[in-house]
User: Which sequence fits this backbone?
């Protein structure tokens, strides 16, 4: 007899829905793409690398600058939170979109953080991302950035982490203004961790019910939220699409400042890879959303 685990999914079906590598023709190609693409960006764009925002080895970020940038400028800033299913990818592979944003006059700041199992818990990953963003707000002016124009992008599990940053109590935790992030783009993220906890992914994450609730953005909405664009690929799984649609609906109902878009013809990985193409749908949407 078929045992339902979540919604209308049995265990095997639920696991497939949350296994992006199983839903593309050549997952190894996509996983390997970030390194070379980021190396090209590093060779072309001036930057400060490996700036520590905390005491752990993974708690570092890079700051990429437009060619004409000066330390006295007040440039908009784009912070990028990488994906990798909370277990892979890193700061070294997060530079790929640097040219896209520096060409438009912004600073680009990819953020490094520990991943599982080294991180120990999803709570620790969330805390590191929050600490990194707080560091940027406190220090970016000395690099020519404007702390009042911090924009945030997250992809896949980084979309989840970016969404958790949106629901942060910045005043209580860091003594910062309530609105640290000016605008946000979430690409192919997850916003309700109940099905994640029930899937094969929990063999790694080790979420109990309390941790699931604590780390689900949809269950921790703040009083106010910044304008947020929530995107996903046309060829994502039904669950990734459902999560995006549900979270955008919730955000729109509560704050009235969100937009949802399906990226035509792309899968989970291509949705963010195409940020390197200035003419792509995602690049056009993101730069328009951020206003530069």
Assistant:
């Amino acid at each position: 007899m078929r045992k339902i685990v979540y919604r209308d999914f049995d265990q095997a079906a639920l696991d497939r829905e949350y296994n992006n590598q199983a839903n593309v023709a050549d997952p190894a190609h996509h996983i390997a793409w970030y390194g070379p693409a980021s190396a090209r960006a590093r060779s072309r764009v001036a930057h400060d690398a490996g700036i520590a925002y905390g005491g752990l080895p993974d708690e570092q970020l890079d700051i990429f600058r437009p060619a004409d940038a000066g330390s006295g400028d007040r440039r908009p800033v784009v912070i990028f939170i990488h994906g990798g299913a909370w277990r892979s990818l890193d700061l070294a592979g997060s530079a790929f979109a640097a040219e896209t944003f520096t060409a438009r006059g912004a600073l680009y700041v990819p953020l490094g953080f520990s991943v599982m199992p080294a991180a120990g818990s999803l709570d620790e990953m969330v805390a590191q991302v929050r600490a990194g963003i707080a560091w940027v707000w406190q220090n970016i002016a000395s690099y020519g950035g404007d702390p009042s124009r911090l924009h945030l992008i997250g992809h896949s599990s980084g979309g989840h982490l970016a969404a958790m940053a949106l629901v942060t109590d910045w005043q209580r935790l860091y003594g910062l203004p309530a609105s640290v992030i000016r605008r946000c783009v979430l690409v192919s993220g997850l916003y309700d961790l109940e099905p994640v906890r029930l899937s094969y992914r929990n063999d790694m994450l080790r979420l109990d019910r309390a941790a699931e609730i604590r780390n689900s953005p949809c269950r921790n909405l703040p009083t106010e939220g910044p304008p947020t664009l929530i995107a996903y690929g046309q060829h994502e799984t039904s669950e990734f699409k459902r999560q995006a649609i549900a979270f955008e609906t919730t955000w729109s109902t509560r704050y009235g400042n969100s937009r949802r878009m399906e990226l035509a013809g792309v899968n989970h990985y291509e949705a963010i890879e195409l940020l390197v193409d200035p003419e792509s749908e995602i690049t056009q949407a993101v730069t328009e959303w951020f206003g530069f």
Observations:
- Residues 3 and 204 are 23 Å apart (CA to CA).
